[in-house]
TrEMBL record:
Coiled-coil ranges (or none): none
UniProt cross-references to PROSITE patterns, sorted A to Z: HTH_GNTR (PS50949)
SUPFAM superfamilies: Chorismate lyase-like, Winged helix' DNA-binding domain
Domain HTH gntR-type, first and last residues per copy: 7-75
GO annotation terms (biological process): negative regulation of DNA-templated transcription
Species classification: Bacteria, Pseudomonadati, Pseudomonadota, Alphaproteobacteria, Hyphomicrobiales
Biological source species: Phreatobacter aquaticus
Keyword Endoplasmic reticulum in record: no
GO molecular function, one term: DNA binding
Highest taxon, organism lineage: Bacteria
Keywords: DNA-binding, Transcription, Transcription regulation
SMART domains: HTH_GNTR, UTRA
Protein name: GntR family transcriptional regulator
Entry-linked Pfam families: GntR (PF00392), UTRA (PF07702)
Amino acid sequence: MAEAIETSKTRRVYLTLRDRIGSGELNPGARLPSEPDLADLHDVSRVTIRRALAELEREGLISRRPGAGTFVTARTIKRPIVADLSNALAHLVEMGRSTDVKLLQFGYAEPSAEIVDALRLEVGEKAQRAVRVRIIDNEPFSYLVTHVPQRIGATYSEAELGSKPLLTLIERTGVKVDRATQTISASLAGPEVAEALGIEIGAPLIALTRVVYDVKRRGIEHLVALYRPDRYSFQMDLVRIDAGGDRLWSPVERLKIGVGINGAAHGD
């Protein structure tokens, strides 16, 4: 229990200092207070301060110089990739090719009742299940769990899934992807996810669940994606319209989604 409390304090100090650096309150070259002063300021032990500073140093946000002190570096915090929520399937292939993927699990099994219902599978029909981590700028930012009907999954290999976007492999079979439904919520990182994404157990995550359908309204992919909120966010453009005498917000479809800081819906 004491260790958990200490870990929580370390993260609080780390996030506080990180936010001050990211907001520009602490400019590059600024000298941080000494460890005893930081401990008093945050009402924690010096051990907690050292742990928080070690994490900031690991990220390249500060440098500790023996005999001189701790200084903010010139490196800025990376802004998250921004995905257009109103058109989240756009440019999936392009985004998939611009990132790397690490395949953690691949196999076939009878899916849960939730997956069976979402994909509208036949009784006893198996699904191909894969777990992958997407990486951009050599850092993990999403943990993906996909289920695909066995009749489709059997058309590609484990090696292909580790090197090509899933929708590319699905469409290669002649399946016509038509539409998708998705929900976005929040989640907490379990042990496996935390290890894969390089975060602490219990860290907050953005959770997206998407079901993709073909032109015959058959489910062809079930995706659960967990994103690091410090590296990924969603954005929607809105316009004010008249609707039956009421003034409402309506989504604006973007003509193009770029890759990188300016936004892209990530490929699965």
